[in-house]
């Protein structure tokens, strides 16, 4: 059986994905990169406390097959655009380069609907540049997921996101056709898509959005 590595397992998508990986019969070991131990005990789980500033120097005691990146923050939480970019761009790229160097077979990452290198929107441009950077790496399969607003129970209350969530739940039924990719989506559905899509033998860079996610 395979070994999976996950970063961002304490986040909204990461929590759901970790549970799916732990209950999967495809993986015998799940390595979670964390800042501090916090994920509980499970016979298949191994938490590795690392410094994300020096992610490239991490040495796993196991051969890793698939890497799942659920790292992400907001500009408000990070405190600045620079701090946001460090998490959503730099850390993701460093993890992808690590996967390339360790000859991992798959790398799955979360981006955003509307991601583009050509937009003036800082958030979406950062996501687009992240996609462009990891797409050049020599990893057999690179899976990029572009969800819209994520729904789910967050550990911290964010007033703006809560208002957006309420509004999106109201407008979701109206978003059909080309607008469907902008529908808000449950974080657990994104996690399920990340797991399911990586269980097929597909090589190349594959981008999923809208109905392809959930």
From TrEMBL:
Domain NAD-dependent epimerase/dehydratase: 4-114
Gene3D superfamilies, sorted: NAD(P)-binding Rossmann-like Domain
Name of the featured protein: NAD-dependent epimerase/dehydratase family protein
PANTHER family given in the database record: OXIDOREDUCTASE HTATIP2
Keyword Membrane in annotation: yes
Record's keyword terms, sorted: Membrane
Keyword Membrane: yes
Annotated localization: Membrane
InterPro entries (UniProt xref): Epimerase_deHydtase, NAD(P)-bd_dom_sf
């Amino acid at each position: 059986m395979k070994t999976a590595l996950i970063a961002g397992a304490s986040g909204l998508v990461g929590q759901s994905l970790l549970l799916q990986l732990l209950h999967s019969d495809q993986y015998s070991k799940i390595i979670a990169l964390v800042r501090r131990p916090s994920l509980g005990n499970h016979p298949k789980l191994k938490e590795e406390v690392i410094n994300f500033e020096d992610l490239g120097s991490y040495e796993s005691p196991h051969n890793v097959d698939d890497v799942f990146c659920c790292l992400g923050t907001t500009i408000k939480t990070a405190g600045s655009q620079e701090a946001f970019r460090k998490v959503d761009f730099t850390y993701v790229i460093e993890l992808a380069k690590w996967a390339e160097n360790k000859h991992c077979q798959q790398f799955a990452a979360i981006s955003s609907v509307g991601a583009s290198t050509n937009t003036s929107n800082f958030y979406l441009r950062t996501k687009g540049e992240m996609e462009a950077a990891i797409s050049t790496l020599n990893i057999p399969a690179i899976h990029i997921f572009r969800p819209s607003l994520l729904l789910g129970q967050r550990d911290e209350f964010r007033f703006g996101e809560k208002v957006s969530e309420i509004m999106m739940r109201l407008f979701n039924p109206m978003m059909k056709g080309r607008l469907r990719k902008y529908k808000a989506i449950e974080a657990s559905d994104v996690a399920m898509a990340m797991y399911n899509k990586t269980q097929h033998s597909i090589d190349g860079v594959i981008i999923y959005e809208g109905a392809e996610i959930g």
